[in-house]
Each structure stands twice: as structure tokens, then as C-alpha cells.
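Sequence, please.
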């Protein structure tokens, strides 16, 4: 076996990251640029993504991933800015809680459109560019919520379960030069979870976790890096759970 002495497996790779204005997407953009990748930063929060773009000196794109017209316009612009696309990280997403009997149809559509339709639109639109790359990667950010049932998360969990299957279907249809994998985080310290978490809920989550703490966005970014790099060249259609040992308890 030969061991590569390359300084960074991501050097020169051109990666489009959605949800890059905050949390996991932002941490991924920071890690990837630190590892010499070039990234296109996509988010519908223009203020947030502008700040990340200024910090990393990378191109930004204000885009609602659930809007087909906006995605159709944005992808060619991002491909031009990066001079091609070698990879996608679909991290844009929203959380929505609520018992099934209380869920409004509008809210159901909203979470499905952002969490499931969004990655579909992004990947479909980027497919011609990805096919031009010698070896391309897609990493979709699912959730352990999509792998096991729980009370009060039906809409969110269903969107993530759908993303899990969409990833596998894409792996079949897009292979062999495009690999598609899913990272399923547990509870991670980002605005998504920090905004709604009571101290009691936090204590319960920590107690039920083998690592006895919530995760950090940087720890998810490392898993995304692995699946975006040649180090994972034979990992395809897989689901990598990164939850500190919560979901198997
Ligand atoms: N934080 C967690 O505990 C956790 C756990 C499991 C899975 N996830 C998933 O990880 C991903 C990232 O979440 P996060 O925790 O970093 O949340 P976050 O709220 O910190 O970041 C999400 C980003 O997505 C952007 N976004 C939302 N809707 C968008 C849209 N329609 N178009 C474009 N951008 C949009 C937001 O503006 C924000 O910048 C999400 O898919 C989420 O479901 C998070």
C-alpha cells in the first residue's frame, strides 16, 4: 500500500456548500478553505453568508434552495466563479417541531421543500458540472431524526428520511464518477438547536449520549471532509452517523 504524502486531499477541489451562512455549513466552509479547497458559499440569509464570504475570501450566492428558479440561476454562476464544480455539500435546512395533529400543511410543505426538494434541485442542476469532474462528491446532511421515530418531529424526520433515500438513489443514478453519501448528525451546538433548547432538554440529551455532551459543528465538518475527499473513494451511498453515541442507546 502506498501512503500519500499530499498536504491536503481537498487541495484545489471546487465545492459548493449550501447553508454556508451558519452552523455546520459555515464550519465546513471554514475547514475546507483551511484545507486549500475553493468553495462557493450559498445561503438565503444574505447578511450571514456575506460575513462568511468576507472572512474566507470566497464567492457568495444568495439563494433559496427550495426555489427552482433561483437554483437554476445560481448554479451556473457558482460554476463560473469556481471554474467548475467537484463537489456539493447540502447543509441548508430548517428544523420544525410539532405533533402530527397540530402540523399545518403549509409548514409540512416548507420543511419538505427546504430539506428535501432543495438538495434534489441543487444536485440535479449541478449534475452536468459534476459529470465533467474526474471524480465528484455529494454529501447530504441528514439527521439521526430521519433514522428513528420520535414524538413531535414527524415533518422534520420525514424530510430527513426522504433525503436518506434520495442520497442512495442519486448514488445509483450518478455513479460511478459521482459518489453520494449522507452524514447524520446528532444534536450539534448550532443556532438551529441552541435557539429552542431548554436547560432540561439539554441535560437529557447529554445524559443519553455516550459522549455526555452535544457535538460541535467542526466535528461534523470533519466527517463531511472525509466523504468529500479521495480518502473515502470506496464509500458510496453510505450513511455516516456522527452523534457521539446517542442513537444506538
Ligand atoms: N444542529 C443540529 O443539531 C443538527 C442535527 C442534525 C442535522 N442537522 C442538519 O444540519 C444542517 C445544518 O444545520 P445547522 O445546525 O448548521 O443549522 P443553522 O440554522 O445553524 O444553519 C442552517 C443554514 O441554512 C440556511 N438556510 C435555511 N433555509 C434555507 C434555504 N431555503 N435556502 C438556503 N439556505 C437556507 C440558514 O440561513 C442557515 O444559514 C441542516 O440540514 C440540519 O437539518 C442539524
Amino acid at each position: 500500500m502506498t501512503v500519500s504524502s499530499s498536504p491536503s486531499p481537498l487541495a484545489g477541489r471546487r465545492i459548493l456548500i449550501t447553508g454556508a451562512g451558519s452552523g455546520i455549513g459555515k464550519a465546513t466552509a471554514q475547514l475546507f478553505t483551511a484545507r486549500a479547497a475553493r468553495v462557493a458559499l450559498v445561503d438565503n440569509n444574505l447578511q450571514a453568508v456575506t460575513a462568511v464570504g468576507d472572512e474566507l475570501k470566497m464567492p457568495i450566492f444568495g439563494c433559496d434552495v427550495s426555489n427552482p428558479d433561483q437554483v437554476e440561476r445560481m448554479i451556473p454562476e457558482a460554476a463560473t466563479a469556481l471554474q467548475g464544480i467537484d463537489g456539493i455539500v447540502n447543509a441548508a435546512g430548517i428544523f420544525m417541531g410539532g405533533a402530527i395533529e397540530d402540523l399545518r400543511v403549509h409548514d409540512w410543505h416548507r420543511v419538505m421543500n427546504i430539506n428535501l426538494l432543495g438538495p434534489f434541485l441543487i444536485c440535479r442542476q449541478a449534475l452536468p458540472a459534476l459529470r465533467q469532474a474526474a471524480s465528484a462528491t455529494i454529501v447530504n446532511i441528514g439527521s439521526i431524526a430521519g433514522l428513528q421515530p420520535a414524538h413531535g418531529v414527524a415533518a422534520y424526520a420525514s424530510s430527513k428520511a426522504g433525503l436518506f433515500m434520495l442520497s442512495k438513489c442519486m448514488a445509483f443514478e450518478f455513479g460511478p464518477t459521482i459518489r453520494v453519501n449522507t452524514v447524520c448528525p446528532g444534536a450539534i451546538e448550532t443556532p438551529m438547536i441552541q435557539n429552542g433548547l431548554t436547560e432540561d432538554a439539554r441535560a437529557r440529551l447529554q445524559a443519553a449520549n455516550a459522549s455526555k455532551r452535544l457535538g460541535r459543528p467542526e466535528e461534523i465538518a470533519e466527517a463531511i471532509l472525509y466523504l468529500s475527499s479521495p480518502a473515502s473513494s470506496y464509500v458510496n451511498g453510505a450513511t455516516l452517523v456522527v452523534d457521539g453515541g446517542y442513537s444506538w442507546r
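Strands lie at 14-18, 38-43, 60-62, 87-90, 136-141, 178-185, 239-242.
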